[in-house]
């Protein structure tokens, strides 16, 4: 199963294979996606999920308010549907 992630408002789209994180898929597609540690510690990859579903193997350290605002750790978030995300606040 392949999903499509679209970064808005830039309208950059890339494919994600089943089981990949947002960050893995972005880097595989040569998308310049902010990242540093790739293990859920530095928050460089934080982005906002506008539509779609992700799941985590390990829940990242986000407050309830941050979760409600849609913040996700791209390096940890496994894609489960087509997504729209934003890198800006
Ligand atoms: S790259 Fe460091 S938390 Fe995702």
From TrEMBL:
<comment type="similarity">
    <text>Belongs to the 2Fe2S plant-type ferredoxin family.</text>
</comment>
<protein>
    <submittedName>
        <fullName>2Fe-2S iron-sulfur cluster binding domain-containing protein</fullName>
    </submittedName>
</protein>
<dbReference type="InterPro" id="IPR006058">
    <property type="entry name" value="2Fe2S_fd_BS"/>
</dbReference>
<keyword id="KW-0813">Transport</keyword>
<dbReference type="InterPro" id="IPR036010">
    <property type="entry name" value="2Fe-2S_ferredoxin-like_sf"/>
</dbReference>
<dbReference type="Pfam" id="PF00111">
    <property type="entry name" value="Fer2"/>
</dbReference>
<dbReference type="InterPro" id="IPR001041">
    <property type="entry name" value="2Fe-2S_ferredoxin-type"/>
</dbReference>
<dbReference type="GO" id="GO:0046872">
    <property type="term" value="F:metal ion binding"/>
</dbReference>
<keyword id="KW-0411">Iron-sulfur</keyword>
<dbReference type="GO" id="GO:0051537">
    <property type="term" value="F:2 iron, 2 sulfur cluster binding"/>
</dbReference>
<keyword id="KW-0001">2Fe-2S</keyword>
<keyword id="KW-0479">Metal-binding</keyword>
<keyword id="KW-0408">Iron</keyword>
<dbReference type="InterPro" id="IPR012675">
    <property type="entry name" value="Beta-grasp_dom_sf"/>
</dbReference>
<keyword id="KW-0249">Electron transport</keyword>
<feature type="domain" description="2Fe-2S ferredoxin-type">
    <location>
        <begin position="3"/>
        <end position="89"/>
    </location>
</feature>
